[in-house]
Amino acid sequence: MKLKLTTTALGLFAAGAFAVAHAGSATDYFNKIDADASGMITQAEYVAYKTSGGKYSAEKAGEKFAKLAGDDGELSLAEFEAAMTKTKTKAKDGKKKDRTT
Question: Which residues contact 58 (CB under 8 A, 6 or more apart)?
């Protein structure tokens, strides 16, 4: 019984920590990636941010950036918010969540 309570408590703690780590607005997330605070995310900033945790390779991050940024090679807040909205919509529809951002 004590083990079950401990396991449950640890699970709730981990879920809470996950929620806090992913809380915040699109603008907050955008500003974390926009290292030079220029108002635009460059490929270098995006790749540096996405590869810093070791989850993404530079190649994969670069490919994702190219899809998000379009022809001008920079990612605006509006483009970023649109990508996040698209991702949230996919998740609500029950489709596989695309972690583009």
Answer: 47, 51
**29: nearest Cα among 51, 54, 46:** 46
DSSP string, 27-41: HHHHHHH-TT-SSEE
User: Which domains occur in the chain, in start order?
Assistant: 24-101 (1.10.238.10)
What is the tens place of the pLDDT at every residue in 35-91?
A: 999 999 999 999 999 999 999 999 999 999 999 998 899 999 999 999 888 877 666
Quote the tokens at residue 98: 């695309």
In sequence order, the 6+-apart residues with CB closer than 8 A to the CB of 56 are 50, 64
- For the record, the structure tokens of 10 come out as 């640890």
